[in-house]
Amino acid sequence: MQKLIVILLLFISPQTFAQTDQTFTYDNRIYQPNIKTVLCYNTSREQSLPVIQLNSSETITLSFDDLLAGTKNYWYTIEHCTSDWQPSR
User: Fold this and answer.
1) d(CA 15, CA 18)
2) Position 29 confidence tier, pLDDT thresholds 50, 70, 90
3) Could you tell me if 73 and 79 are in contact, meaning their C-beta atoms sit under 8 angstroms apart?
4) Where are the beta strands (DSSP E) in 16-87?
C-alpha cells in the first residue's frame, strides 16, 4: 500500500506544482501569441472600459480570437482593482 502511495505521489506531484515562468502584471497584455483581438467591455456600452457598478445588473463581455484550430478549454480570473490598477485586497 505504501508503494502505491509513493508511486501516485511521484506522478501527481510534478503536474500539481507546474507553473509557468511568466510574471503576470496588471497591464493590458496578451500572454499567448495565438490569442488576438481581445475585447473586454461593459456589455451595455461596447466602446467602454470593463467597469461596472457593484450590486448592479450590469455585465462585462470578454471575447477574443484563438488562431489555433480545435476545441479548447479556457479559463480566466477577474480581480478587483483600485482606480490605479492595484489589487484591492
Assistant:
1) 5
2) confident
3) no
4) 35-42, 60-66
Location of C-alpha cell 502584471:
25
The grid coordinates of residue 80 equal: 478587483
CB 43 within 8 A of CB 61: yes
Q: Are 85 and 26 in contact (CB under 8 A)?
A: yes
Residues 6+ apart with CB under 8 A from 23: none
pTM tops 0.70, yes or no: no
pLDDT for 56-79, tens place per residue? Answer: 999 999 999 999 988 889 888 878
